[in-house]
Amino acid sequence: MGSPGAGKATTVTIRFLDDEIMEGRVGSTSLDQPNLELEMLDQASNNERALIPLPSIKRIALGSGIPAPAEQARADKKVAIRFQDGEVLKGYLDGDLMHATYGITMRLMSVEKDRIETLGIPYTALKALFYLKSWDTRPPEFDGEEDLHLNKRLSSPLVDLISDMGQLDKLRKRGAITESEFQRKRRKILDNI
After folding, report:
1. CA-CA-CA-CA torsion for 106, 38, 27, 92, nearest 10 degrees?
2. Is there a single domain that holds both residue 116 and residue 86?
């Protein structure tokens, strides 16, 4: 993640490839090293520190906030970040990508332009970063807006997964998705259970 944060502890949120989330402090936020050493924030935990290899990390959130009007005004580079696990993260790229030996760092503003965050993404988690002409115009039955609820992590996972199964069944009964699409998405939900 370049030189920002070098020499002082930075609080980060790490999302692992298996969707586990861990928060802590790192002395260096450089993606030029093959791993991160994380000091745990949870004093109740038995864990004091963790050595985390970058290939186990999906993305690192280095900070977020509300974008300034100037940041919102210059937001014109639409991007879609496709991860190895199939997740797609969309937003406006603020500034340039910062390349390092083991990953990239970027400032990404949400599609709604109401939140901006600095992300570090190891190359091992990244499938591709696409620069878009426009936001997805595919109909809902082909992973458009209506299916977004199937992809986000919610606070009551089992209830949410059961609800997702119900929504998926409704889409199939309406003819909005094919039987093979239903089976593929159903398998994805069952894998999460």
Report:
1. 10
2. yes
